């Protein structure tokens, strides 16, 4: 009888132990899957936060670049004396500012437009405008700007800033303009 009781006890205990073992495995697997999902969600959230931070940094740098470019646009004209393409020492600060911008922004491009007043022949004024644009180009290249970033064009007397026939108007028309 004792043996019978023992067999009955084992017969009852074994299925209970099996059920307990199976239920603990299901719980462990579910907990592991939940933890893996949480880790994946956290990694995805961290990646999204990093991407957002990178995008914000790019936007900030673009804004700074745009502000610098806007500042350069307000001081983009170099004036020359009558019948010369020699740069005056008073324009070095403006040209240095442009050179610094172009060196730090290798993908930026500038067109230097050379102009002359209406005195002289059209051919002479085209050549003078070209020499003025090239003088500015040479200064920028000597300051470290790549020649591939610079293009020159001469308009001679064709695009005056002021149409009057006064000495003040002539002085405003003798110029080189940096256009980004």
TrEMBL record:
Cleavable signal peptide: 1-20
Protein name, UniProt field: Peptidoglycan-associated lipoprotein
Organism in which the protein naturally occurs: Thalassotalea fonticola
Entry similarity comment: Belongs to the Pal lipoprotein family.
Keyword Nuclease: no
Record function comment: Part of the Tol-Pal system, which plays a role in outer membrane invagination during cell division and is important for maintaining outer membrane integrity.
Main location: membrane
Domain OmpA-like: residue ranges: 67-180
A Pfam family: OmpA
UniProt keyword annotations, A-Z: Cell cycle, Cell division, Cell outer membrane, Coiled coil, Lipoprotein, Membrane, Palmitate, Signal
Subcellular location: Cell outer membrane
Entry keyword annotation includes Cell membrane: no
SUBUNIT field: The Tol-Pal system is composed of five core proteins: the inner membrane proteins TolA, TolQ and TolR, the periplasmic protein TolB and the outer membrane protein Pal. They form a network linking the inner and outer membranes and the peptidoglycan layer.
NCBIfam families attached to this UniProt entry: Pal_lipo (TIGR02802)
Coiled-coil annotated spans: 42-71
InterPro entries: Bact_OuterMem_StrucFunc (IPR050330), OMP_bac (IPR006664), OmpA-like (IPR006665), OMPA-like_CS (IPR006690), OmpA-like_sf (IPR036737), Pal (IPR039001), Pal_lipo_C (IPR014169)
Lipid bilayer topology: Lipid-anchor
Domain of life the protein comes from: Bacteria
């Amino acid at each position: 009888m004792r043996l019978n009781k023992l067999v009955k006890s084992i017969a009852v205990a074994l299925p209970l132990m099996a059920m307990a073992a199976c239920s603990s495995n299901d719980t462990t697997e579910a907990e592991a899957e939940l933890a893996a999902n949480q880790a994946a969600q956290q990694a995805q959230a961290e990646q999204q936060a990093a991407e957002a931070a990178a995008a914000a940094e790019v936007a900030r740098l673009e804004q700074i670049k745009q502000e610098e470019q806007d500042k350069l646009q307000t001081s983009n004209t170099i004036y020359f004396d009558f019948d010369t393409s020699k740069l005056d020492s008073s324009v070095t600060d403006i040209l240095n500012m442009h050179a610094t911008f172009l060196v730090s922004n290798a993908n930026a491009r500038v067109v230097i437009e050379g102009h002359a007043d209406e005195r002289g022949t059209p051919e002479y004024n085209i050549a003078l405008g070209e020499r003025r644009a090239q003088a500015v180009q040479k200064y920028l290249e000597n300051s470290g700007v790549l020649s591939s970033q610079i293009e020159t064009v001469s308009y001679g007397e064709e695009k005056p800033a002021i149409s009057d026939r006064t000495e003040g108007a002539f002085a405003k028309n003798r110029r080189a303009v940096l256009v980004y």
